[in-house]
Amino acid sequence: MADTAAAQIHQQLSGLLFLEAIQYFPYLCSGISCKEGNEDRSLLLLPTMNTAIQTKLVEQTLTDLLAEDPGYFLVEIKIAPGNHVKVYVDADQGASIDRLVHYNRALYRRLEEDGVFPGNDFSLEVSSPGLEEPLKLQRQYVKNIGRYVEVTRTDGVKNEGKLLAVQPDGIVVEEEKGKTGQGKPKGGKKELVQHEISFDNIKTTKIQVKF
Is the pLDDT of residue 50 over 90? Predict the structure, then answer.
């Protein structure tokens, strides 16, 4: 009985750590059918389902949906109290509203079918990251080459400038120094300084809008 339940858990949570699923054994074998071949996804309806597992299930489901369009990719999933699910999706050439609406509907339908949230009581928003959201993936950095960014390092030091390049382990930002501005004399000579910043040394990077 226990072996069958373990196999069902491993299959349904495909990709989650097996040890995370062990906690559900008492619920599966106490008043809930553990018959071999049972296709009921009652495990996913348990009130003890934690946010980490729900997040993983949302991620896996959306990853399957995004496979139809390699230009789109998942950035982040946030689940707030009350099962308010917010999903950030980006695209190499810019995410269109039509595609985001498509993925919102498709993901909502799949989450309902799979019973990821108890009683299907949840809300869902799929959108592209706004300017207030920091860059999180190397793929996001690549699509923003040439734009101005503000990089806050782990030690609190900030660098503002143009994102020139993205390397496997970090980025190159070109900062203008010495230009005329508040507290600087008129006629000041511009100096371009390039900063090579490793990803390990980056706390946040945000896009800056320049007019």
Answer: no
